[in-house]
Every structure is written in structure tokens, then in C-alpha cells.
């Protein structure tokens, strides 16, 4: 039923006798509140109608409707506190309007206007981001957002204090906040939604998951997805552990208020989370490209029209004598005029996006800003370091009581461990979690020193995080379930709340289950929020082969080309102890999500085939900026070898061997693959004119070919020979030393290709 048809239908309603108990039946809401709620519903519907008009005119390029979901939206928005966080999806226009989003902003969203404060015209309509109203950035891959909600509710519950390096002292949201997550019933089939409900029940967090069940996920019916057509059935066993399950009709105003109130009271009391199967209607097809009349029976189409919540709420209010039909009908005319007027002003003033509007909102990192932020931290807390390290030495955490920068050159693993200690000392905002990262399971840790002091503890499968939990407690360093997507979902929640999480993915090989969280949610947040929401985190992971035969499939991946192809993600690859420390400090201060790739084969190496790779831990004041390569043998001009990470020591060894042959090679350690130091690459190409790129990544889509293509495309005139490229074979690394030799670049290959290139 069209907007004006609903108004005409309301005008034909017969006014009812005023009931003395009417307000009580509406959860105690007075008339003004009920009319304000209804107004938000009508406003959302009218804005949606305007979007369709603009679509027909070619001014709006995409349409996706929210009609049928307005009632549950406004009830939730009214009952929740104004600053309770909302993690929604693209059907929540009425929630936005009731929280205070303006007509102007919604029209700008529809036409992709650069003036939109929500998305800056980056996203399709109805993908909101109003953090100032507690409405967190939304994205199209629904289902995955539930993990963000679960992570945020856990982050809010975590008692560790937040200093607020990035602007949220004491946290973005209050410690008693309730997280509301809305989701369509089809998206609840995703494994991420199931894990989200599990985590919330496991930790008894204050989260409500509202499932808007219209019966259809595009053309797939709810009966094809769940037993009894009810998406809550898979979670019935969780009621043993505090999960509340509600089923109610989200087109009935009294029932919706009563049920949502019950859930809200339950979670606010700390009893656990709630999940609701909410029956709603579908007033429009899935989107502008869908036509539900092709697969929905006539009788069901009629049901969705007759149970439209705008009609049913109007009928209830009139029959109960809360208001007259004319009061509601007049609302339609007023809102119609308001939307016409705003649209008539906003659309002709449409502002196109410039390249700067888009490109400058992918990363927030600014070299000077990061340096300033780090200096403030160091100035505030570094005076305590010497005393703390002496204390840690006395407790047996370190072999020496000296500050790490005053010790002799060290191995990579030791430097990363020291770096984590430093960062955790400098700010309470840091948390670290993942599989096996803690010294002890929580139940052992809670027994206290009388038990833990008798045990060595774990601290990561490679001992990189050893003693962190002992030093900083189980609220800051803890093990998680074996679920990579859940680890990153938790990280999103903590980052939203104002912390800087250090989620660990044990091997980059196992990033696959977390790929959607990483690529579609974490890395896109800054851009899709129009640069309004930063998502700082340091995702630590081991990568690469050369494990003396111990690695193989799923323990030797170095496919960093996969990750440098993700806009919004900084990709860091240190090759030694000094660089790891300096880069990790920058990662903390940069404000962006960082993939910190730790070359596992270098953790405990003192040398590479005789070439020493130990290095000095840098003074605490020193950062290494992203996108700043390091040059070895800078005076050499015969040939340039460009590499990073694990292959860098190999290239330095090759440099030594080439020197014995009278060939002077300059080696460039990129240190970061996102961003890449193109200026240094240009410099070495111009100076040396012959270039070899060595990468443990594979050829297809790899980091090496990306670098080679750049040189060939932009620096061709400075080359005296074709760019040569050495990569891993197009296969997964086979087991054993022989498998590594077959699959991965070797020192003798670097030397052989370099000699051939020199003689070209």
C-alpha cells in the first residue's frame, strides 16, 4: 500500500472510545511519546518513497527498503538509552530517524552526496554510520556484523580501564550499556551470527539480537532455512547458560513494547544476552532489482499489506482512543511536505565526490601525528620502565634487569616480547588475546601465585607472549576459543570501545575463517564511516616457511599479496629485532588496523647461513615510520636487490657472496608492504639500473610482481636490463627440508639470478 493510500485508509477509521487503561497497555508510554514514535515510522516510510522517486529519475542509483520493520525499530530506539550502541543493517531507517538522523542526511545517502556526514557518499543508501548517535558503521555483508556486536558487548563488560589514546577515555560507551544488534532472518544462517550468540551467552554480556523475520531472504523462504521457520531454534540449548529467547509479533505495538521491555530488563540486570524472533512484514521486494511477485503467492502478498505496522499501529491507537484518525492523517501531509521541501533543496545542490574525498579516507595514518602520539605516551610513562623491568627480572620474566635498549643485540622473538611489554606498560588501552597466547587458562590464573608460580606457563606457541599475562593480568591477556573470525570480531568490539587490541592469528595460513571480518569489516570501517570511525588494532600473525622442514601446508604461507590488496589495512613485515620494535610502536600510534606479520623462521635465528642478523633494541623514543625502507650497502651500484621479511637475511647473505665475486649489490628492505616505499625503490632503480626482486610470496597476485610491475611501468627508462623476479613456486609448501628447497627461493638462486642480471 502506497504512502498516501495508508493516509486515506486511516481517514476511514472510526474513532474509538478512550480506554482508561490504554496507556498502561502501551507500556506506560504517554500519547506524545506514541505519536512521536509513529511519526518516526511515517517519516522513514516517506523518505523511502522519496528514494524510489529519485531512483526513477536516475538520481538515486540503488534502492533497498525498510518497510515493515519500522515498528520494532522505533520501539527499540525509544526503550534503549540514547547512547546505547546500535549495530544494525540496511533495514533500519526508522531506528535512525527516531534517534535523530535528519531528512537531509537520508536524502544525501540516497543520492551518494559527498556532503553526507554519514558515509560521504561512499556507500549505497541505508548503510548508516552515525557514531555520535551510537549508530555504528554498517556494511552489506550482514551476519558478520553480529560478531562486532558480540565483541563490543564483551569489550564494554571488560573492567580494564581505558585511558583513551584515540579519544575515548573510560570508553566510547558506558559500562552499563546494552548493545542492540538487528539482523534479517536469512543472515542468521551465517556461522558468524551463531558464534556471536555463543560468545554473548558464554560471557553473559548485555547484548540483544533482534531477528527481523519477514519470512524471506531475497527469494529463499524461512521454511527452507530453519526448523519450524524459526531462526531461534538452533539456540534453545543456550537458555541453560543464560540466553533469553523471545518470540513476538513486531507488527503489534503492545506486544512489541512488552517483549522488548522484558528483554531489556533481563540483559540490564546482567542475567545474560537475549535473542528474539520478531515477526515483521515485507512491504517491498528485497531491493530495487528484485520482484517478489515472481515467487511469493498472492495470499502472502496480501498478508504483508494487511499487517503493515503503519496500518496496525494507527488502528490500535485510534480504536483505543489514544488519538483521532485526523491527527494521524495530518501527520502524513506534514511529513510529505517536509520531505518534498528538503529533497527539493538537497538534490539540486548535489555535490559530487572528488578523488580526494575517496582516496584520503582509506587510511588515517599520518607520520607526524603518530610521532606526536608516541612522544606523549613516552613522556608520560617511560620513567617507570627501569623500575618495572627490574621488578620483572626479579619475578623471573627476563634474564636481565637492564632496559632492553641497554642489552646486547637480540633475536626477533625476544624483541617482540620486549616490545609488547613496553606497549602494555605505556598504556592500559592495550589488550592481547587469541589461541594459546596466555600463560595460563583463566581458571588456573585465578588460583593465584601459589599455583602459577609452580608452573612455567605457556605464552604463545612460539613463546612470544610469555609472561605478559603474569605481568598485566587476565583481563588484558587471555586465551580465546579456537575461532579466528571470533578473535577478530572481538577485536572490532574492543576497538569500537576505545582500546587498542592485539588479536593474534597463530599462523597467517589460518586467516581464512577470519577473512570476511578482516577484509569487509575491519579494513573498510574508516572509509565507509566517512573517516569518522577509526578502528585501531594490531593483528599479530606468524607467516612464512623456512622452518627447517617442520612447516608444510597451513604452516608456511607467505601470501602477502592477498593482504596488500585490501584497502585500509597496513601490512608490516619486519626482518629483524630492531625493526620489529620500531614498527610495532608506530602500529600502536597509527590509528589504523595493522597486519603485523612476524617471520616465524627468524624468531630464534642468530644468523642466516653465517650472516649475523641479531640487532640492537632501539631507544624507547624511536619509531620507524610506515613506508620507509632500509638500505644496506648503500654505496653499491652494480645491482639492486629488493626484498622484505624472511627473505631479507637471505638477500644479505647473497650480497656477501656476490661481493666475493666482485659484484656490489645494494639491498633494500621494504619493512612495510602497505604502504610500500616507492621513493626508495625509485632511488635504487635509478642508481643501480639492474633490479632483482625476491619474495617468498607466489607469482600469481604476489607482492613481488606488484613491485616489479611498478618498476616496469614507471621506471622503465632507467633500467639497463629487465626486472628479474624470484618467487615461491605455484604450489603449497611441501613437508620436509627437501620440500622447502623445491618450493621456496634459496640463497644460491638469488646469487645465480643476480650474476646473470649483472652480466646482461
Summary tags:
single chain; 760 residues; alpha/beta; Rossmann fold; 3 domains; seven-stranded mixed beta sheet; five-stranded parallel beta sheet; 29 helices; 21 strands
Give your account of this protein's structure.
The protein is α/β, with parallel strands linked by helices. The chain has three domains: 328 residues, 3-Layer(aba) Sandwich (Rossmann fold); 246 residues, Rossmann fold; 129 residues, Rossmann fold. It is built from 29 helices and 21 strands. The protein has a seven-stranded mixed beta sheet. Strands 1-2-3-7-6 form a five-stranded parallel beta sheet, with helices on both faces. A five-stranded mixed beta sheet has the order 16-18-17-20-21, sandwiched between helices. The longest helix has 26 residues. It is elongated and about 100 Å long. The model has no long low-confidence stretch (mean pLDDT 95).
Tell me the count of domains: 3
CATH architectural group of the largest domain: 3-Layer(aba) Sandwich
Tally of contiguous helical segments: 29
* CATH top level label of the largest domain: Alpha Beta
Sheet with most strands: 7 strands, mixed
Return the average pLDDT rounded to an integer.
95
Radius of gyration: 29 Å
Oligomer: single chain
List unreliable stretches of 5+ residues. Answer: none
Short description:
The chain has 760 residues and is α/β, with parallel strands linked by helices. The radius of gyration is 29 Å and the shape is elongated.
Amino acid at each position: 500500500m502506497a504512502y498516501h493510500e495508508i493516509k486515506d485508509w486511516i481517514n476511514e477509521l472510526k474513532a474509538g472510545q478512550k480506554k482508561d487503561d490504554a496507556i498502561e497497555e502501551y507500556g506506560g508510554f504517554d500519547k506524545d511519546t506514541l505519536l512521536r514514535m509513529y511519526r518516526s515510522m511515517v517519516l522513514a516510510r516517506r523518505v523511502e518513497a522519496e528514494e524510489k522517486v529519485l531512483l526513477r529519475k536516475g538520481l538515486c542509483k540503488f534502492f533497498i527498503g525498510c518497510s515493515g520493520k519500522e515498528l520494532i525499530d522505533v520501539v527499540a530506539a525509544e526503550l534503549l538509552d540514547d547512547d546505547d550502541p546500535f549495530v544494525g543493517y540496511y533495514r533500519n531507517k526508522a531506528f535512525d530517524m527516531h534517534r535523530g538522523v535528519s531528512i537531509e542526511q537520508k536524502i544525501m545517502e540516497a543520492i551518494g552526496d559527498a556532503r553526507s556526514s554519514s558515509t560521504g557518499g561512499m556507500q549505497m543508501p541505508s548503510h548508516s554510520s552515525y557514531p555520535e548517535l551510537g549508530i555504528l558503521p554498517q556494511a552489506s555483508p550482514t551476519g558478520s556484523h553480529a560478531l562486532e556486536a558480540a565483541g563490543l558487548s564483551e569489550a564494554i563488560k571488560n573492567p580494564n580501564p581505558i585511558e583513551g589514546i584515540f579519544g575515548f577515555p573510560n570508553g566510547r560507551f558506558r559500562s552499563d550499556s546494552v548493545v542492540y544488534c538487528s539482523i534479517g532472518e536469512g543472515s542468521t544462517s551465517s556461522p558468524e551470527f551463531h558464534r556471536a550468540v555463543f560468545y554473548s551467552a558464554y560471557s553473559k554480556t548485555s547484548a540483544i539480537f533482534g531477528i527481523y523475520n519477514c519470512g524471506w531472504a531475497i527469494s529463499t523462504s524461512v521454511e527452507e532455512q530453519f526448523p519450524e521457520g524459526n531462526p531461534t531454534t538452533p539456540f534453545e540449548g543456550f537458555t541453560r547458560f543464560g540466553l533469553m529467547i523471545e518470540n513476538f509479533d513486531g507488527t503489534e505495538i503492545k506486544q512489541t513494547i512488552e517483549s522488548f521491555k522484558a528483554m531489556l530488563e533481563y540483559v540490564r540486570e546482567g542475567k545474560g544476552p537475549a535473542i528474539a524472533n520478531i515477526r515483521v512484514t515485507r512491504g517491498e521486494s528485497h531491493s530495487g532489482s528484485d520482484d517478489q511477485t515472481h515467487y511469493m503467492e498472492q495470499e502472502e502478498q496480501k498478508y504483508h499489506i494487511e499487517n503493515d505496522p503503519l496500518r496496525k499501529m494507527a488502528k490500535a491507537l485510534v480504536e483505543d482512543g489514544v488519538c483521532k484518525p485526523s491527527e494521524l492523517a495530518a501527520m502524513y501531509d506534514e511529513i510529505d511536505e517536509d520531505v518534498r521541501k528538503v529533497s527539493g533543496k538537497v538534490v539540486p545542490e548535489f555535490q559530487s565526490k572528488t578523488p580526494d574525498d575517496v582516496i584520503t579516507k582509506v587510511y588515517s595514518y599520518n607520520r607526524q601525528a603518530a610521532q606526536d602520539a608516541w612522544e606523549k605516551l613516552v613522556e608520560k610513562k617511560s620513567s617507570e620502565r627501569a623500575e618495572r623491568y627490574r621488578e620483572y627480572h626479579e619475578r623471573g620474566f627476563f634474564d636481565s634487569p637492564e632496559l632492553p635498549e641497554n642489552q646486547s643485540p637480540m633475536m626477533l622473538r625476544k624483541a617482540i616480547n620486549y616490545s609488547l611489554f613496553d606497549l602494555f606498560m605505556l598504556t592500559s588501552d592495550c589488550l592481547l588475546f587469541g589461541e594459546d597466547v596466555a600463560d595460563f587458562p583463566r581458571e588456573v590464573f585465578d588460583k593465584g601465585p601459589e599455583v602459577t608460580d609452580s608452573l612455567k606457563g605457556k605464552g604463545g606457541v612460539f613463546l612470544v607472549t610469555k609472561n605478559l599475562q603474569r605481568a598485566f593480568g587476565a583481563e588484558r591477556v587471555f586465551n580465546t576459543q579456537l575461532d579466528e573470525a571470533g578473535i577478530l570480531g572481538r577485536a572490532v568490539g574492543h576497538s569500537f570501545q576505545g582500546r587498542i587490541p592485539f588479536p593474534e592469528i597463530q599462523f597467517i595460513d589460518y586467516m581464512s575463517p577470519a577473512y570476511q571480518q578482516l577484509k569487509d569489516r575491519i579494513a573498510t570501517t574508516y572509509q565507509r564511516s566517512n573517516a569518522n570511525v577509526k578502528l585501531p588494532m594490531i593483528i599479530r600473525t606468524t607467516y612464512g616457511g623456512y622452518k627447517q622442514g617442520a612447516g608444510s601446508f597451513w604452516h608456511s604461507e607467505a601470501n602477502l599479496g592477498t593482504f596488500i590488496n585490501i584497502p585500509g589495512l597496513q601490512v608490516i613485515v619486519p626482518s629483524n629485532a630492531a625493526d620489529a620494535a620500531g614498527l610495532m610502536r608506530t602500529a600502536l600510534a597509527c590509528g589504523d588496523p595493522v597486519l603485523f606479520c612476524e617471520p616465524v623462521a627468524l624468531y630464534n635465528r642468530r644468523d642466516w647461513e653465517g650472516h649475523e642478523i641479531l640487532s640492537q633494541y632501539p631507544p624507547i623514543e624511536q619509531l620507524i615510520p610506515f613506508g620507509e625502507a632500509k638500505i644496506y650497502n648503500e654505496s653499491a651500484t652494480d645491482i639492486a636487490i629488493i626484498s622484505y621479511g624472511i627473505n631479507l637475511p637471505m638477500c644479505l647473505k647473497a650480497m656477501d657472496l656476490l661481493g666475493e665475486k666482485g659484484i656490489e649489490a645494494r639491498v633494500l628492505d621494504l619493512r612495510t608492504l602497505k604502504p610500500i616505499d616507492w621513493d626508495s625503490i625509485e632511488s635504487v632503480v635509478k642508481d643501480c639500473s639492474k633490479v632483482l626482486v625476491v619474495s617468498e610470496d607466489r607469482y600469481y597476485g604476489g607482492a613481488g610482481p606488484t613491485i616489479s610491475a611498478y618498476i616496469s611501468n614507471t621506471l622503465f627508462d632507467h633500467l639497463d636490463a629487465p626486472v628479474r623476479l624470484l618467487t615461491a613456486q605455484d604450489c603449497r609448501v611441501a613437508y620436509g627440508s627437501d620440500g622447502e628447497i623445491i618450493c621456496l627461493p634459496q640463497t644460491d638462486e638469488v646469487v645465480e639470478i643476480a650474476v646473470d642480471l649483472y652480466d646482461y
